[in-house]
Amino acid sequence: MDDWFAAAGDRAGELRRVDALVQAAAPGIDRQLVPVGSGQMLGYGLMPYRPRSAKETTTWPLIALAAQKRHLSLYVCAVVDGEYLAESRAAQLGKVSCGKSCIRFTSLDRVDAVALDQLVRDAVASTAEGRNAYSG
Questions:
Q1: Are 42 and 29 in contact, with CB atoms under 8 Å apart?
Q2: Is the overall model pTM greater than 0.70, yes or no?
C-alpha cells in the first residue's frame, strides 16, 4: 500500500490525509487496493455489487479513493431513499465537483471536513442497516 501512495508523487500527502479522514469516520472498515482499469484505487468496505448489465453479483468498495491527473476522487457508493449521498450533499462539501457518487477536489483544504466525515459515517451506517440501494 505504501507503494500506491508513493506512486502519487506530490499528492501522496493529500491521499494520506483523505485516507486518515475515512478511517477515522469508519473505524475498523476493511481497506485494500482494488483493481480498476489499468490501475488501482484504495477501497474501503467491500460490499455486494451487481451492475444492471451484469448477470452475476461481485464486490465493490463502499468508498474508494483515487488519484487522477489533476485532482483526487473519493467515490461514495451509497444510494439512500433514492438519492446518491455524495450528489445530494455536494453543496455542503465545499469547493468540490460532484457526480452521482464521485467527489472530486484538488486538496482536502478545499473540502468541508466535517461534512465529508458525516457523509462517510452515513454511508457506512446506511450500508450496515441494509438501506444502501447502490447497484451501479
A1: no
A2: yes
